[in-house]
Every structure is written in structure tokens, then in C-alpha cells.
Amino acid sequence: MRRLITNIMLGGVGGQGLILMTKIICQAALKDGYDVKSNDVVGLSQRGGMVWGNIRIGEKIYSPNIVPGDGDILVAMEPLEALRWSSILKPQAKIIMNTKEIYPTMVQQEKMEYPVVAIEDLKDKYQVTAVNAFDEAVKIGKKQVSNVILIGILAKHLDIKLETWKESIANNVPKKAIDMNMDAFDFGYGVEG
């Protein structure tokens, strides 16, 4: 039985492929018969700043905005983004987290410490699936497929057919990179959690 609404929050750093990720997820959901609303905030992306977006999937969706405390799944493309956006989640919601750290300017300048302990504490409140998607993407062939690894993990938590996911990926990545992206998706789909 399909859930009425699934609220997905995406958080990352500019250049990690959040817009492509949003497009692939939305197209897969639409193709499988869902109503979908999404939005992305990417204005800071050109300076390596934070980027984020909402995706709401269900039978009928009126707004892309997720009310704080109503998030079902957070896909964090960087650990600090998992911490930053965790307040949007329901208790015991799912967090899919890329563990590759990208230090913000204040940490690079040693004016702040990277919040390792606070990020680790997320495991006490939420169902966290953590993988170094960056390193795994490099092993597959290119760091740019790390976002598709995260989509593969997400796919296990949504009622969307596997072939629909693969079709959406193939329709949105360069033809020469389809096989590599399929390998990335399959790797993510096989991650436990």
C-alpha cells in the first residue's frame, strides 16, 4: 500500500549534484504515478555554500514545503548538512548520509571546530545509513556519481519500481556516463540500512 505523502529533504554543498538528484527523484516518482512537488535553494552553490531542497511525493501534493518536524527522509550529501537539517525530521526518521566531510570556511580558518560529536549523536535520534559516497564513487570511476549512490540508498525506502529509477537516471545523465551511474545506483541500492 502506498504512503499518502513522503517528505524528503536534500542538503548539500554547491557542486555535489543536488539539482540533478532532485530531478532524478522527481521524474522517477512522476513516472510511477505519484504527484510530486519540489524546490531547490542553490543561490550559494557557486561559492561552495550550502544548497538544499524539498521533495514531497504522494497521491496529491499542494506544496513543496516541508513543515519542521514532518520530514520522513533526509539525504545529506555531507555530514554537517545532516546536522543542519535534522530539525526538519520526525522522530526516528531516516537519514542517508555521505560521510565525506567538506569543511566550511570557519573550520578551515580554525575559528570553529567541525561538530563530529554532534553528527555522531544523530544516530541516537534517527535511523542513519552512513557511507562515504565520495570514496565509493571514485572507486566506481568518478566522484560525480556520489549523488547517484545516495539515490540508490534512497530508492529502497520509496515505493518506486527499480526499472523506473534506472530509466530516470539514464534520461538525466550524459550517455557516456550511463553505465557508471548505473554502477553507482546499484552500489547504493546494495548498502545495508
Automatic annotation (TrEMBL):
Q: Does the keyword Oxidoreductase apply?
A: yes
Give the Enzyme Commission number: 1.2.7.8
InterPro entries from the xrefs? IorB_Oxidoreductase (IPR052198), Pyrv/ketoisovalerate_OxRed_cat (IPR019752), Pyrv_flavodox_OxRed_cen (IPR002869)
Q: Which domain of life is it from?
A: Bacteria
Keyword annotations: Oxidoreductase
GO molecular-function term, one example from the UniProt record = indolepyruvate ferredoxin oxidoreductase activity
Recorded hits in Pfam families, A to Z, give: POR (PF01558)
Q: Which SUPFAM superfamilies match?
A: Pyruvate-ferredoxin oxidoreductase, PFOR, domain III
> Which residues are in the Pyruvate/ketoisovalerate oxidoreductase catalytic domain?
14-189
Stated name of the protein: Indolepyruvate ferredoxin oxidoreductase beta subunit
Q: Which organism is it from?
A: Alkaliphilus hydrothermalis
Primary enzyme class: oxidoreductase
Which Gene3D superfamilies does the protein's record reference? Answer: Pyruvate-ferredoxin oxidoreductase, PFOR, domain III
